[in-house]
Design goal:
Blueprint: H1 4-18, H2 23-57, H3 60-75, H4 82-87, H5 92-106, H6 111-122, H7 126-136, H8 145-168
Helix pairs in contact: 2-7, 5-6, 6-8
Length: about 170
């Protein structure tokens, strides 16, 4: 197990040498392109991180959860998962923090814990992915990507509860 990464590095280097590629120059060029990409996406990422921080600390998340509670109660969606469901498309680390709290408070094998696990594994950090990938290649118009991603997230959220209810309860 300790030799996997060194083996990959040696294999890639040997393959490059066999193909007569200047491996070091290719590495330096890739590193330079990576730094350039970092500088292009950094402002967008900083803006997203600040927005998530403001959203959480302002109390807006709690306000939205309270507003949505009648709907989630009617649908049978656990109210404990509403903050996670709202935060997951925006922030993976924020959603993971909520997931950890759900595990501590209700247990990983509880209905809520299982729903949270399925929800976490089947949804995407849609806004982060759009920000990261589109800004890294300079795409400014996302067209239908956000709507499709959020629709997929909503579907995954609903079916996380349905799946756990049918198969794991």
């Amino acid at each position: 197990m300790d030799y996997i990464i060194p083996s990959i590095l040696v294999s890639v280097t040997l393959f490059g040498l066999i193909k007569k590629v200047n491996v070091f120059e290719a590495f330096v060029t890739g590193a330079k392109d990576g730094i350039y990409t970092l500088f292009r996406i950094a402002p967008t990422m900083i803006g997203l991180i600040v927005a998530v921080g403001v959203f959480k600390s302002s109390g807006a998340l709690d306000l939205i959860c309270t507003f949505l509670q009648p709907v989630t109660d009617f649908l049978g969606f656990p109210k404990q998962l509403v903050p996670m469901a709202l935060l997951r498309p925006v922030s993976g680390s924020g959603a993971t923090a909520i997931l950890t709290n759900v595990f501590k408070e209700y247990g990983a094998d509880s209905f809520v814990g299982r729903c949270a696990s399925v929800l976490s594994g089947s949804t995407e950090t849609t806004f982060y992915a759009i920000t990261m990938y589109y800004s890294s290649v300079g795409i400014k118009h996302i067209r239908h990507t956000m709507v499709a991603g959020l629709t997929a997230d909503l579907t995954a959220m609903i079916f996380s509860v349905v799946t756990v209810s049918l198969f794991l309860s």
